[in-house]
Design the sequence.
């Protein structure tokens, strides 16, 4: 089991790095920048990571692992009828480290992290769906591009706009949009 102090220091380093990503391109972030932001010395950084790209790999791997664990537990054949549990799980993952996800989703500079995570998640979700539902690759690609890109855009917009609605409300709406389209939401608001 990993020492809690080590976990805390690594989490501080990751958050410092991700907050810097919202200010500058990854190629302009230095170890000194991260150490200063994390309020540690460079030696402490190097005791955990060989460099920035090892840190980036660890962040990517942890995020992908969290989402993959959730995706593997989904029953996509029943999800079509009732997608809420899927979005509740995704909301729970985001809420567990909202600072990290918020920083990554609100990154304006081209770090490549965000895009890489999205692509890995698309591939893994696609693989999970194909293991449960018989669907042609090209048709599933269209579904994946539409739903994942739209979902990410909504969450990204939510983080960048100051998170005025609850993440639970955003997830509920995205759940409806992904499975039923715009019609049910518009009907819901027309009835008010």
Sequence:
């Amino acid at each position: 089991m990993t020492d809690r102090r080590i976990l805390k220091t690594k989490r501080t380093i990751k958050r410092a790095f991700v907050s810097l990503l919202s200010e500058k391109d990854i190629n302009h972030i230095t170890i000194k920048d991260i150490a200063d932001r994390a309020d540690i010395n460079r030696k402490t950084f190097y005791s955990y990571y060989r460099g920035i790209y090892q840190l980036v790999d660890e962040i990517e791997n942890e995020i992908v692992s969290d989402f993959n664990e959730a995706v593997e537990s989904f029953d996509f054949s029943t999800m079509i009828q009732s997608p809420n549990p899927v979005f509740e799980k995704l909301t729970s993952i985001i809420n567990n480290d909202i600072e990290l996800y918020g920083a990554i989703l609100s990154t304006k500079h081209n770090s490549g992290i965000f895009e890489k995570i999205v692509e890995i998640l698309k591939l893994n979700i696609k693989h999970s769906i194909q293991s449960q539902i018989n669907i042609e690759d090209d048709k599933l690609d269209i579904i994946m591009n539409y739903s994942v890109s739209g979902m990410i855009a909504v969450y990204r917009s939510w983080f960048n706009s100051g998170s005025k609605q609850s993440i639970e409300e955003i997830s509920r709406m995205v759940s409806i949009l992904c499975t039923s389209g715009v019609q049910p939401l518009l009907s819901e608001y027309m009835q008010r």
In short: The chain has one domain: 4-190. The first helix runs from residue 4 to 21. The mean pLDDT is 81. The two ends are 53 Å apart (CA to CA).
